[in-house]
Structures are given as C-alpha cells and as structure tokens.
Design goal:
single chain; five-stranded parallel β-sheet; 20% strand
Length: 124
C-alpha cells in the first residue's frame, strides 16, 4: 500500500497524540502535526496531504476558518477534512459541513469510529 499523509491540526498535544496513535494503525500512515490553523496552513503548503483532521476551537485561527481557506485554495480544495471537536451542537456541525468539511466527529473520539471515517473518505 502506498503511504498516506495525514495532517492533524489540534491545539492539544494529548489529543494530537491520540489521533496519531489511531492513524498509525493504517499501514504506511505518515502524520504531520500542527497546533492551530495558521500552523496547519503552513504545514499544508509544504507537505502533500491526503486527509486533514482538524479541531474547531484553536487559538490564532480556528478550524472553521481553516476549512474555508482550504476549500478556497485550488491546490487543496479536494483534500478531505474531518472535524474533530467538542462542539456537538447541530448548528456547529451544519456550519462545518456547509464550509466544506467532509465528516464531523465529536470528542471524546473512539479510535474505531475515527478509523472507519478516515477509511471511508479515502476509500481504503
């Protein structure tokens, strides 16, 4: 299997570690980490990424602004985005999906649900 590169954008190092641990179950998975939306865009510009996993609530640039900027950039507009957040309200999910997110997972995350969503989006 060819390698897959995932970009985790999350301000919590512990949460990034949990997501990384789950993604490492996918053979050939490579993970790039960013601590906020600005850092995420910087890492996105220097890495070929197959899928983005992003929190919504982060300092400097939140996940919703990030989704909007990714979708408006021709180079990244087709990269699947999974929102992983504590924001469980229906309105938050609808807003994220309207901006272009492909999936929405509320914390606490379950590794199996996360992997299922990732595999479905990447057709693995």
């Amino acid at each position: 299997m060819a390698s897959l590169t995932f970009l985790i954008i999350e301000d919590s190092p512990t949460m990034r570690q949990l997501i990384r641990f789950a993604l490492n179950r996918i053979p050939g998975a490579e993970v790039v980490e960013a601590s906020d939306g600005v850092d995420g865009l910087k890492k996105l510009s220097s890495n070929q990424v197959d899928l983005i996993l992003s929190d919504i609530n982060m300092p400097i640039m939140d996940g919703l602004k990030l989704v909007s900027l990714v979708r408006s950039n021709e180079a990244y507009k087709d990269v699947p985005i999974v929102m992983i957040t504590t924001e469980g309200a229906k309105e938050d999910k609808e807003r994220a999906m309207a901006l272009g997110a492909n999936a929405y997972i509320t914390k606490p995350i379950q590794s199996t649900a996360l992997l299922s969503t990732v595999k479905e989006l990447l057709k693995l």
